Hints:
This is Gfo/Idh/MocA family oxidoreductase. Residues 132-255 form the GFO/IDH/MocA-like oxidoreductase domain. The chain is built from ten helices and 15 strands. With 335 residues, the protein is an alpha/beta fold. The termini are far apart.
Amino acid sequence: MPAQHHVLIVGAGSIGLRHLRCFLATERTAISFVEPREEVRQSIIAEYPAAVGYASLEAALAAAKFDGAVIATPAPMHVPQAIQLLECGLHLLIEKPLTLDIASAEALAAAAAESSSVIGVAYVYRANPLLAQMRDAILSGEYGRPVELIAYGGQNFPTYRPAYRDTYYRDHANGGGAIQDALTHLFNAGQWLIGEMEKIVVDADHMILDGVDVEDTVHALARYSGGIMATYTLNQHQAPNEMSFTVVCQRGTLRWEPTQNRFRIATEPDAGWQEIQIEPLQRDELFARQANSFLDAMEGKSAPLCSLAEGVSTLRANVAALDSWRSGAWRSTSL
Length: 335
């Protein structure tokens, strides 16, 4: 079947390549990409002969017509490129973090208000079917009002991102460090489950990761709308790859454990958990689901998994968390 769309991947680092691979796998779109390094560009074309490579965004826009784009460049480039592509009428999927500051996010929101394009932010946890099921259970009201969120994550970052020392991760100014790179995913998932964060206090430090100075360990307390309390704990150096989200409601406790491929519910003391287990998801599966969801949004079939407004809300949590860590004080997300 001929491709229905033509999507441009802007930035062909590790995450850009994953988007390229997963959009191709949908068999719904032709793919082009932007990579200024000639040697890298040619190696990608050799591996993915269906893709067309360009040395710059300007060269791509001059040479072909696109209806969508994925922005996977370093975070400071996201907003200028997004506004440029909006002016060309493209639908956009923008990698996290959306940007680094609220002012640029508001500039993007203003440009988006003048456009009919779909804009999504690539918080890929929302593509996990078990997290969606947990959210539906919370929103159903069956378990009462949420009162507490406990989020925990840890993994050996060099195992999954061996080149981290040579990427944006090493510099806050490029969107690096554990808060902007990893904890932001947890913030976004928490927002999806229980609503808007109102304030946060953070302790963080560089504890172990070799070759960088940015924080690799973060502890945070937060308050959400409706008085919901939250705790976030994350490190990027432990041996086991673990994650869990627990939401304590008035009449039940719900827990998502993505590394165990399960969602659990407990409603009675000492009665054990009710478990919903699925087969392990392949490494690219969430990104493939995200790609299909974005193409559906482009076609008007559904909303983006994470809207621009929701991405801006998560950015406010990022900014408040960094400010709290540096100041040693509670910080509001509304500033």
